[in-house]
Amino acid sequence: MDTRWLQDFITLSEVRNFTRAAEARNLSQAAFSRRIQSLENWVGARLIDRSAFPTQLTEAGERFRDAAIELVNQLAEARAGIAGVPAQNQLRLATSYALATTHLPKWWRAWTEGKLLSCSLQTGNVHDTVSAFTSGAADFLICFHQVAQPLPLDLARYDCLTLGTELIRPYAARALIERTGLDLPGTAARPVPLLMYSANVYFARLIDAAIEAAAEPLHGVRVFEAEMSDVLGDMAAQELGVAWLADSALQRLAAADLAPLPNRGWDIEVSILAFKDRADPRASVEALWERMKAAAQPA
């Protein structure tokens, strides 16, 4: 028995689609299907009705889903207990590295002021963090979100809160902009050097969608790809090209002297959302959620 099979199954039970579930777990569909089949072999029953569309759980699958979520939560609490942390006050939060290094520190201070709470933080790409949350390995998910690129989450099951908004804008070294007049969309004769996110990063999907929907074609050449905005920001600071960065990322890149490009038509506005499972009964989870609501951006 591999505990990852439980997380795979819980994710599939949420999104009801093998392809989307495999993407959320960062697996090929073939590998994901093999792991679900291995779980079924271990359980000794069919958990998925593969003849239905969209994918449905069998009666046995519906019963096993609750057990799988409970098992994942118990394992996490057992690990926290062994580490010497009181399980009832141990909160597990999944978010991106970008949010963890910009907004989270000041948020956490406000949310926990006067309360004795501890946090186990998981950072990763959108696949990792959504998967950790939907599988029960995290109590809270905090992530960037745009309606045009929805996350594979069942909003009938999860509470959702808007913590704020953010602008993702194309930035370049100020000296490069002033010296060359660098701006988007560029021309066929002078394509813009682009510092882009790897395909598995949520920002990559947002930027690709913005480029496709733009009123004019982008003339650019990808000169570098990376998962982390800090890396792309450092590359931009070396005058190597244009990187789409969240405005908050500039706090960590203040010495880089980056500036947004003059053409504001390539800016992307995103929300920062928090999620929690409505069925989670722990008082510490509800207490933190109430603090988050009190400090959240007004609707």
From TrEMBL:
It holds the Pfam family LysR_substrate. It comes from Achromobacter veterisilvae. Belongs to the LysR transcriptional regulatory family. Keywords: DNA-binding, Transcription, Transcription regulation. Residues 1-58 form the HTH lysR-type domain. This is LysR family transcriptional regulator. PANTHER family: HTH-TYPE TRANSCRIPTIONAL REGULATOR, HTH-TYPE TRANSCRIPTIONAL REGULATOR YJIE. SUPFAM superfamilies: Periplasmic binding protein-like II (SSF53850), Winged helix' DNA-binding domain (SSF46785).
